[in-house]
Design goal:
The chain is α+β, with helices and mostly antiparallel strands. The strands form 2 sheets. Strands 1, 2, 3, 4, 5, 6, 9, 15 and 16 form a 9-stranded mixed beta sheet that branches. Helix 7 packs across helix 8. The longest helix has 20 residues. The chain is globular, with a radius of gyration of 22 Å. It binds coenzyme A. The site of coenzyme A (COA) has 17 residues, from strand 4 and helix 3.
């Protein structure tokens, strides 16, 4: 802070407000927060990636908003930036007891940041409070209400809980890369490419709606999910492709795998997360796992919320199909020199499949990084229980 800026205002000052960034401010923020998040990218590459990500199906045409907490008495581009973040508009489903499944708009919040020179003064907290209020009705057709918003905390559970985003199940398992399986890529599984995803995402969405509508009603429980649609998934793929191209000279082409097995059809969509150092490790992250039985009905075994799934739902045919799927992921991880395969919030059935591959596998409960957090926005009172299903990596941003 230079002396000409004077001392910064109190975080409670009425002059402070949450407003949208100008393009110039956005680039300044990227240059600053890139120090935290650029991973293997140079500052210029990082800015390039963020610009690229702002032009995707999910984000173009107002799908992303870039926010700052600033002093509204000052001019744009000259005003101080006390804190910043982004919100991504996502399609979501909400099922209230005794009601039909309802389409809703949700937001994923990311890149919550405070310039080191302004930290510890309550600006990020004030920003999140303002953002919560702003997103209540933001960008909603006909002034509708937002039902819920999500974020993934890398700073534990306390800060965001205090600002209204409560932690949800945040666990994962990992499997090592391995190409030694006796799998035949012609008969045991198919690799999925970008052009295969639209249809699979549509099928997944249909099945998710059906699974929610036929779910046993639990009084006082509202069931929510972000829709694993192509826009959401392809944004994550645009990210891996940009980083792959810049740092390895090639973009990952294989986006997942599909297994036809006695139990039915199983598929997963993944994304490669490249890191800066060997210690941090490159991760092949499973974004979404879907299972359907022979009749094409969805199996409620992989809806990404193991806590809500009956432990008995581990039919051997399903487990066998999922095992092949996980092995296909391990094989892809080996081919691209990834350090591990990571599966968030595995269902009992996925866990059973992983346990056959590695009998010593254990579920890691994250308490610091990537804590899935959700805030309820409806004006009606907050439900007693919110069940966030399909809480898998595709919801991350
Ligand atoms: C996290 C961050 C946004 C906080 O900004 P800030 O303006 O200093 O935060 P505030 O002053 O509003 O809030 C401070 C509160 O957050 C807590 N907090 C701040 N940084 C924290 C961290 N890294 N881990 C855990 N808690 C943290 C403080 O302990 C304090 O809590 P208290 O009020 O109960 O004492 C800022 O440190 C930052 O930009 N960090 C680097 C990027 C990052 O990690 N962002 C979060 C991604 S999920």
């Amino acid at each position: 802070m230079t002396s000409s800026e004077g001392s910064p205002p109190s975080s409670k000052s009425p002059d402070l407000a949450l407003v949208e960034q100008t393009p110039e401010e956005r680039e300044r923020i990227w240059r600053l927060n890139g120090e935290s998040w650029s991973g293997p990218l140079s500052p210029d590459q990082y800015v390039g990636r963020e610009k690229h990500l702002s032009r995707q199906l999910l984000t173009k045409n107002g799908g992303v908003n870039y926010w700052i907490l600033t002093d509204t008495t000052k001019l744009p581009n000259e005003r101080p930036i006390f804190s910043s973040c982004e919100s991504y508009k996502k399609r979501a489903l909400v099922k209230r007891p005794d009601r039909d499944v309802m389409d809703s708009i949700s937001y994923s919040i990311g890149s919550v940041f405070c310039d080191p020179k302004y930290r510890g003064r309550g600006y990020a907290r004030r920003m999140m409070g303002e953002l919560g209020k702003k997103l209540d009705h933001w960008n909603q057709l006909g002034g509708q209400e937002t039902s819920f918003t999500v974020l993934y905390s890398d700073i534990g559970k306390i800060f965001y809980t205090k600002t209204g985003w409560e932690p949800f199940e945040s666990s994962h398992i990992t499997l090592p890369p391995n190409q030694e399986f006796n799998l035949n890529p012609m008969t045991d599984f198919e690799l999925l490419y970008a052009s295969d995803l639209e249809l699979l995402c549509q099928t997944d969405e249909r099945k998710l709606r059906k699974a929610m509508s036929t779910r046993e009603p639990e009084s006082d429980t509202v069931v929510v999910a972000l829709i694993p649609d192509l826009a959401t998934i392809s944004w994550l793929h645009a990210r891996e492709e940009y980083v792959g191209l810049e740092t390895r000279g090639r973009a990952p082409k294989v986006k997942g795998a599909l297994v036809h097995s006695d139990g039915g059809r199983f598929w997963c969509i993944w994304s490669h997360f490249f890191s800066k150092t060997a210690e941090e490790g490159n991760v092949l992250s499973i974004l979404r796992i879907v299972a359907e039985d022979e009749g094409g009905e969805v199996l409620a075994v992989t809806d990404g919320n193991s806590a809500a799934m009956p432990a008995t739902n581990t039919d051997p045919a399903n487990v066998s199909g999922l095992k092949k799927l996980l092995q296909a992921a391990q094989s892809e991880a080996a081919k691209l020199a990834m350090n591990e395969v990571q599966i968030w919030n595995p269902s009992h059935c996925v866990l059973a499949a992983a346990t056959i591959i590695n009998p010593h596998i254990h579920v890691i409960q994250r308490d610091q990084d990537s804590i899935a957090s959700l805030r309820w926005h409806g004006s009606k009172s907050k439900p007693d229980t919110i069940s966030w299903i399909a809480n898998e990596k595709y919801s991350w941003c």
